[in-house]
Amino acid sequence: MKTFQRLIYKQVVSTVLFVEIGFLGLFFFFDLIEELRQVGSSYQAQHAFAYVAMMVPNHFHELLPIAVLIGTIFVMSRMAQTSEFTILRTSGLGPVLALRNLIGLGFAFALCTFIVGDYLAPLSERHAQLMKSRYMGQITVGMTGAWLKERQSYSNHAVNIAAMDGDGVMRKVRIFEFNNLGKLQTVTRAERASFTPADDAWILQKIMRDEFTQDPNYPTPSNRIEADILRWPTTITQEMVSVALLRPDRMGTLDLFQYIRHLEANAQTAQRYEIEFWRKVFYPLSCLVMVVLALPFAYLHFRSGNIATQVFVGVLVGISYFLLNNVFGFMGTINQWIPWLAAAIPGLIYTALSLSIFGWLVLRH
């Protein structure tokens, strides 16, 4: 069946790449139009073009499963319409063998999705955001910035970062220190903060530090210290700050895992990030779901039908899969579902559905 593999693999891969390039070109155009609206004195057209170009890997990762679905459905439908698949079946291509070969191709697409989504896309996304912030302003989140928490041996710290500029320098940093009884001890304000090369401390600049009395009812500032520079030992790394300031779905799996461990170590809820972590783990497997969804189209015999209609139906099915995936993500966060189960249920449902349809078509034909 090596002839079948070469025939199918060549057609599917070329069609998927064609669809993917078409989608990327469309998204590139729309993103460029949007970015050109923000062009000004500092953020110029070449910066907008570079930003949109660096967003291409992220779009590639997001669009590859749907491109796999469209490309595979098109190839399967065309082979069914021209009776090529029927000839292959009479030549010994059984349902199990056909499914096994397509799953092998799906694994290749899944590996490609994982590599791009876990390494290339987060790196490119981070450089794009930092470049844009360098020319347009600062990276910030919400009205009060990002909040992080750290538990140390004899105290707990709540850290607020208003923004981070394109050089990785944090702006308007506030550090609230509490003792083990939860009483406020100090509040440190810094205009700027930067990471040390070893990421085991922050260098705070232009500091104002208030020390509070240990009055059990009303802690009041008892001493104020001002300094130009201060080294603050911490385990909060630049990657953790980036996770807090950027969307979690744009981070790598390892960065998300480390950030989840940090949240759990400091008794903070990590449900949202755990679900996003498992979604990133299972997302490449969407390519396997897509090829399984496409295989039943090879057993449909509509010679006079329009392939575009079957592709359109397949696209609707694929869109419903991604919508269900997002819905289960939100529902899992709200209802505190088991993270890996909330991320895996959509894929399991559609895989079971496609295999059931595939089995029914095999028995019927």
Could you please describe the fold and organization of this structure?
This protein is α+β, with helices and mostly antiparallel strands. It has two domains: 2-136 and 273-364, no CATH class; 146-245, Sandwich (lipopolysaccharide transport protein A fold). It is 59% helix and 17% strand. The protein contains eleven helices and six strands. It has helices at 2-36, 45-54, 56-81, 84-90, 95-136, 238-245, 253-265, 271-282, 286-294, 307-335, 339-364; strands at 146-151, 156-164, 170-178, 184-195, 201-212, 221-233. A six-stranded antiparallel β-sheet has the order 1-2-3-4-5-6. The longest helix is centred in the first third of the chain and has 42 residues, at 95-136. The radius of gyration is 26 Å and the shape is elongated.
Indicate the topology.
Layout (H helix, E strand, L loop, with lengths): L1 H35 L8 H10 L1 H26 L2 H7 L4 H42 L9 E6 L4 E9 L5 E9 L5 E12 L5 E12 L8 E13 L4 H8 L7 H13 L5 H12 L3 H9 L12 H29 L3 H26 L1
Helix pairs in contact: 1-2, 1-3, 2-5, 3-5, 3-9, 3-10, 5-9, 7-8, 8-10, 8-11, 9-11, 10-11
Characteristics:
365 residues, alpha+beta, lipopolysaccharide transport protein A fold, six-stranded antiparallel beta sheet, 6 strands
Helix fraction, binned, reads: 55-70%
| Low-confidence regions | none
Instruction: Compute the number of helices.
Output: 11
C-alpha geometry: elongated
Measured by DSSP, the beta-strand proportion falls in 15-25%
Output the radius of gyration.
26 Å
Termini Cα gap: 21 Å
Biggest sheet, strands in spatial order?
1-2-3-4-5-6
How many domains?
Answer: 2
Counted beta strands? 6
User: Which series of helices and strands comes N to C?
Assistant: HHHHHEEEEEEHHHHHH
How would a crystallographer describe the biggest sheet?
6 strands, antiparallel
> Could you tell me the mean pLDDT?
80
Structural class: alpha+beta
